[in-house]
Amino acid sequence: MLDPELRDELLARMERDQQVRLSLPVGEPLTAELREEWERVDADNTAFLKRVTDEHGWPGHDLVGENAAQAAWLLAQHADHDRDFQRRCLPLLRDAVARGQAAPRHLAYLVDRVRVGEGRPQVYGTQYRQTAESGFGPHPIEDPEHLDERRAEVGLEPHAEYDRHMRRYERG
Q1: Element (H, E) at 29
Q2: Cα separation of 4 and 8, whole Å?
């Protein structure tokens, strides 16, 4: 049964998450003030999502609608400061996907985010980085020969197309 209040709160939190991230000036260093705001928003959103998952499990389509279920995934995706929580979200999201309550692509992104955070190769090639040695590109990918097959299974475009998209947002 749809919970409109929870749906609206998730959507508002996603909007704030995106406002902070989109306020980053391209090609300029992150200011201390903006970093503090970013970290505050992420910590607050993570605490909120922890309460939600403790009470409801993963907030899926039936509970909050498709857009707010995406918002829940985004908040988990951006909980990098709490890797234990991100790992705790994986089985919840995996179960929601199996029940048709969440998008498989969201699970793919979170799997990659958790693996990269653990220093392991990603599975779906969704996570990028900037390094002095190799420039901008994806974190290491496990079994790259079958990457596009895995991506197709979860509804993601071929990696070459995604790579072109990601490089448009490369920060100097």
Answers
A1: none
A2: 6
Residue 168's alpha-carbon distances to 19, 127, 161, 163, 165, in angstroms, are 19, 15, 11, 9, 5
One-character DSSP codes across 156-169: PPPHHHHHHHHHHT
Contact (Cβ atoms closer than 8 angstroms) between residue 127 and residue 156: no
- Structure tokens belonging to residue 170: 């490369």
pTM of the model: 0.92
Residue from 61, 49, 149 nearest 98 by CA: 61
**Cα distances (Å, whole numbers) of residue 17 to 14, 45, 149, 165, 169:** 5, 8, 31, 21, 17
Closest to 93 measured CA to CA, from 78, 110, 81, 79:
110
Q: What is the pLDDT of residues 105-152, one digit of tens each?
A: 999 999 999 999 999 999 999 999 887 777 789 999 999 999 999 999
